[in-house]
Amino acid sequence: MSADLAVSTSHVVVAPMLAALATAVATLATRRYGDVQRVLSLLGIGAYGAFVVLLTGTVLSGGTLTYQLSAWPAPFGITLVADALAVFMLSLAALVTVAILAYSVAYVGDQGQRVSYHPLFHFMLLGVSGSFLTGDVFNLFVWFEVMLMPSYVFVVFYSGPRHTAAALQYTVLNLVGSALMLVAIGGLYATTGTLNMADLARRLADPAAFGIDPAPVLGLSAILFIVFALKAGIVPFQFWVPPAYRAAPAPISAFLAGVTKKVGVYAIVRLYFTVFAVGAVEGGLGLPGLSGGSFLAFFGPVLFLMALASMLVGGIGAVSRDNLDDVFAYSSIGQVGFIVLPLGVVATVGDHSLGAPVTDLQVLGIVAALVYSLNHAVAKSLLFMVSGAVHDIAGTIELDRLGGITTRYPVLAGSFFVGSLALIGIPPLSGFFGKLLVFDTGGRALAAGAPGAGLALAGALVGAIFTIAYLSRTWTKAFWGGVTPVVENGTRSVVLVAVVAALALVVVAIGIGFDPVYSFAESAAEAALDTEAYVDAVDPEVVTHE
Amino acid sequence: MTQVVLAAVLGLLFALGTFLILRRDVVRVVWGVSIISQAANVYLVTMGGLSGQAPVLGHDGGHPVACTVPDAGAGCITDPLVQALVLTAIVIGFGTTAFALVLTYRLYEEHGTLDLGEVTVE
To answer: What percent of chain A has a predicted confidence (pLDDT) above 90?
Structure first.
């Protein structure tokens, strides 16, 4: 290959994905030897974590890395991009999945582990990592499918009446979502002539030069947005969440709520704040109630309203549920509202066009969403795993039949307490900073005169009060009070409680040592908003024709 | 003319798929999902342009330009990339359809019915 076509290929970018893929295959090959399989699986997740740490270190010290598959220059080949935002999400995934896998080894039955659990777990992790790293819209669709296929099987894992029904609903919904995604991607290719995200951003920034009409691109990106909202479980695409989370094994509910949901959030930040943000429809959108012509002038209010609705639906739903998993599932819907709200607030603030200076408020909004995602990933997986441990002890997670867990199992109850306080946002836990940043974004937007900022603050306050209400209700009904027979006669597994307690320590550690987490999230947010640097890093060739 | 016919067929396929997904019979729902994903595939192929020549290098003797490129001119070729995309999508759709059918069978075993009105999530 000639020198001018030499492209950057940093192999460390694909290292986490290779670790997940190799482990998936290895655990599939050793499915007859249970112990070997478990050891390989744990070694594999260890390698995954180590590679993510290595990649994160390299990216944070040396800047964005790209991997052009087979050294085909962008936009012709498949591009993988590891920038600060991608490695932030990868670190989040690695942190949570290491704990989840350690828990799974003790939680999932022997038969289940041998047949399918470990290979599927690593394939799902592969899909998640691919979605975070890819720099190509169609490739994103493929990684989404890689991530979804194992999740279908996990929802039907116990294959009882309830599980098959939930899995059917989950599968059909996501298949329709995939078809919609294909339609949107095909349309984007036809209107913009590219699938590479960096190339897409460059073309949208100067549509006239590439013969692009921005109006259909806005419509197609809105169809794509539905798919991501479905994955993230934002209202009105939230209805699949409670049955699916309840049907899946507890560690998988932790995975789905902690990590898979964040893939939807990541895709929204990456595509709508890095790529589509530079697009604008000349002469305004022409839609009632919306001013300005930029794409974000449309997505900002949409995100904002969906976030408010999520906080309300999640909060009201969680207050009235009668088992732990349903409370946590509705809580996930509400908490995703908190993640998306700052995005909606800052979307309409300032100028997002290519090369425009990034304001502090824009960065703050993305930082708030990222920090809240991290907090929710750790705290919610902790709570789902507490629910699993309670089921392991008492054989039920119905609030009516539980009670007195604080007396019999203080460590388990203490971990639940720490996780709840983190979701509520009590200092010095991780959740405090998440909530603080969300309110700070709202406050500063209000001071800057952004429309709807007051409503955002009020909505976040109502959402926070709901969070306190449903978590204290769960605490009083299930953990406090007299010891019920099911709790009295149960036995606990040391490993399950140890993993949950370790995650509770992580929640405390993130809160106390928040400074490095904040600067990591800040560089991730700057990477998300700096479209110019993203395009420069990928460096798509300019296609010329006579 | 081809465009009009294909647009009408695509519209019909999406409508039929949606209609079937809204039925109570699980097998019809799975049919609906497959029809919608096939409709998406056909739609993808049409996105490469219908009027161009076969995408063979040197077919026209000159430098080939895809019809999706603005001002491509008369001798443009049909964009071959979308066909590669569709192949990937077909393979994925094949896997998901197989899974959905197996899931339907398990649902029937667990509930003894394929009527969604009698299958409850709770």
So the answer is: 79
Q: Find which of B103, B111, B119 to mutate to test the A interface (most A CBs within 10 Å of its CB).
A: B103
Distance CA A189, CA B47 (A): 8
Give the count of beta carbons closer than 10 Å to the beta carbon of residue A6: 10
Kindly state whether A545 is in contact with chain B, defined as any CB-CB distance less than 8 angstroms. Answer: yes
Inter-chain touch A164–B100, beta carbons under 8 Å = no
A449/B27: higher pLDDT: B27
- Which of A138, A152, A159, A168 to probe the B interface (max B CBs under 10 A)? A168
Asked if the Cβ–Cβ distance from A168 to B21 is below 8 Å, we say no
Chain B residues with CB under 8 Å of A543 CB are: 69
Q: Which residue has the tokens 């499918």?
A: A145
Instruction: Using alpha carbons, select from B23, B39, B33, B46 the residue that is nearest to residue B114.
Output: B23
Contact A27, A113 (CB under 8 A): no
* Cα–Cα distance for residue pair A420/A497, rounded to 1 Å: 16
Q: Give buried/exposed letters for A334-368 (b at 16+ CB in 10 A, else e).
A: bbbbbbbbbbbbbbbbbebebeeebeebbbbbbbb
The per-residue b/e assignment along A124-142, b for 16 or more CB within 10 angstroms, e otherwise, is bbbbbbbbbbbbbbbbbbb
In this predicted model, what pLDDT tens digit does every residue of B19-34 receive, in sequence order? 999 999 999 999 999 9
CB count within 10 Å of CB A536 equals 12
Spell out the residues 6+ positions from residue A13 whose beta carbon is closer than 8 angstroms to its own: A55, A65, A66, A67, A80, A81, A82, A133
Could B37 and A546 be called an inter-chain contact, meaning their C-beta atoms sit closer than 8 Å? no
Judge: A183–B43 Cβ closer than 8 Å, yes or no: yes
The ipTM is 0.92
Cα A528–chain centre separation: 15
Q: What is the pLDDT of residues A205-234, one digit of tens each?
A: 989 888 889 999 999 999 999 999 999 999
Cβ neighbourhood burial of A410 (10 Å; 0-12, 13-18, 19+): exposed
Q: Does B10 touch chain A (CB under 8 A)?
A: no
Measuring CA to CA, which residue among A154, A149, A129 is closest to residue A49? A129
**All residues at 6 or more sequence positions from A331 whose CB lies less than 8 Å from its CB, including other chains:** A314, A318, A380, A383, A423, A467, A470, A471
A9: left (phi over 0), alpha (psi -120 to 50) or beta: beta
Tell me which chain B residue has its CA closest to the CA of residue A243.
Answer: B121
CB A366 within 8 A of CB A339: no
User: B37 and A160: CB-CB below 8 Å?
Assistant: no
Residue type, A347: A
Question: What angle (nearest 5°) sits at the alpha carbon of residue A270, between those of residues A80 and A6?
Answer: 25
